[in-house]
Amino acid sequence: MRSLWLRTRATGAETKLHVDGSPDDPVWSPDGRQLAFALKPQGAAESNVYVIDLARPDQPRALTSPGAERWPVGWSPDGRLILYVEVAKDTRYDLWVAPASGGSPTPVVRGPGKDQGARFSPDGRYIAYQSDESGVTRIYITTAAGDSRHTVIASTGEANHARWRGDGRELYYATPDHEVMAVPIRETASGLEPGTPRALFKATGRFEPAALGDRFLVLREAESQASTLVHVLTGWERDPR
Q: Which domain holds residue 92?
């Protein structure tokens, strides 16, 4: 069974967060004081989104009422909203937001596609996500309000794992052959306008860009099937070297 653990960098001390079930997909709040995660409590039929305030780690609370499979994918930069995926019978995977403090959720993207892998832009005004609504998985951008304006970032070929640069002026994504691509983003009167994608490097695992987009943290797949240790390095994006 999975567990959530916190590790203190300075001392190496580890603390287990005790929750009723098997937590998954943890996402930090921007201020680092809260954690959203997916949890299927004992006896529940689906996973729901839960939030823990680290000042009260023994009191996790459900973000929404149960009734559908859900998992979190991100927070708005101001920490007010949690972005999550909800599985629906007719529309497959949909994107929703809900107030982190509690309240009614709002749909952002609902349609026939498998909409997931979403991230807020650094200013919180847009959301980049992947969808196979066209029959091919591509990267799209929509407004955080969830209106009908969508910008297609990768118009040809498969694309996934969208990530923003810290200033919102560049977006990164991965191709099926593990190429990490960079797309300049320009804001115009009619919305966001993507430039020409360029290849950066190959990465067989997930990646996260530093705020300036000059370095990337890459999770490499193990060459062996044997059990391996995973070392997590924090604070890497602030290293000026």
A: 4-238
Which residues lie closer than 8 Å to 144 by C-beta, 6 or more apart?
76, 81, 97, 108, 120, 121, 124, 125, 126, 127
Sign of CA dihedral 4, 82, 78, 104: negative
| Number of neighbours of residue 101 by Cβ within 10 angstroms | 13
According to DSSP, residue 201 is labeled: E
* Residue 38: alpha-carbon gap to chain centroid: 13
**C-alpha to C-alpha distances, 173 to 54, 70, 117, 205, nearest whole angstrom:** 32, 23, 11, 12
Mean pLDDT over 30-45 rounds to 90
Tell me how far the alpha carbon of residue 71 is from its chain's centroid: 10
Which of the 8 DSSP states describes residue 236?
G
Instruction: Give the mean model confidence (pLDDT) for residues 23-39.
Output: 93
Share of the chain above pLDDT 70, in %: 90
Residue 13 CB contacts under 8 Å (≥ 6 apart), including other chains: 7
In this predicted structure, which of 4-13, 90-99, 135-144, 163-172 has the lowest mean pLDDT?
4-13
For range 187-198, the mean pLDDT: 89
Using DSSP bridges, classify how beta strands 170-174 and 4-7 pair: parallel, antiparallel or unpaired: unpaired
- The domain that holds 77 is classified in CATH as 2.120.10.30
241: tokens are 């070297």
Bridging pattern class, strands 179-188 and 48-53: unpaired
Q: Decide: 89 and 79 in contact? Cβ < 8 Å.
A: no
Average pLDDT, the chain: 88
Q: Domain tally for the chain?
A: 1
